[in-house]
Amino acid sequence: MFETKSGIFLIAGLGFFMLAFVVMALIPISIYSGESEQSVEEIAADGLTHEFVDLAERFPEKFNEYFGKPDPKSYAVALRRGHKIYVGEGCWHCHSQFVRPVSNEEQRWGSVSYASEYENELQRPVLFGTRRVGPDLIREAARRSNDWHIAHFYEPRYTVPTSVMPSYRWFFDDDGYPNRDGMSIITYIQWLGSWQPEYPYWTGEGPPPALKADAAPDAAGSEENV
Ligand code: HEC
To answer: Residue 135 C-alpha to ligand 1 middle, in angstroms?
Structure first.
């Protein structure tokens, strides 16, 4: 076998395959197998997003039928379903979930991604994505209102006339209100990045803090407000 060229290539090929398997599979497994990973229930126990509660207030009957009350239990159900839809619909073909430390990406999407953000059940399978036909979504929480997402999923051209994103009419009932899948995907999208310390106004697009409680009229022209 070692006398022929093809025999040497065969052995070399198998050798490199084994080496790659050890380096890229066995060693990482042995390093990371002890790492803890947050379950969806643990994520939900940390608190609900404003947008999940907003869905319950906006569509009380349907929300009650699909999820019951807005509490950690129903939040976990909606998150898990929304995540499954995101994977199943192939949203990751067009959207990444990773703010890279290059090209000033943090100016557009918020802070660069860090490891602990991905140590949870909702990142299995890993949804970093490779293509960006649409924008990165890992800092999407509270960037848009639920209303915006409803119009956008129904027909992306309603909110962004030049959009190439497909419309997702099956997220809606015949009356045009979001159905169980619609509310779940919005819940999931509005969760992405909600763990950021600056949430919900990290984009700088929300009302400045001064305007939330005692409105200070002169804060209106301040820099954060631009
Ligand atoms: C064919 C590629 C494509 C697919 C598939 C796709 N999108 Fe998009 N998406 C885009 C493009 C392009 C934009 C930017 C224009 C716009 O806002 O519609 C976008 C925008 C968005 C935005 C708005 C981001 C922002 O704040 O501006 C969200 C949220 C979103 N997509 C979620 C989804 C979800 C969830 C799915 C799967 C159900 C999905 N997309 C599937 C291409 C895609």
So the answer is: 7
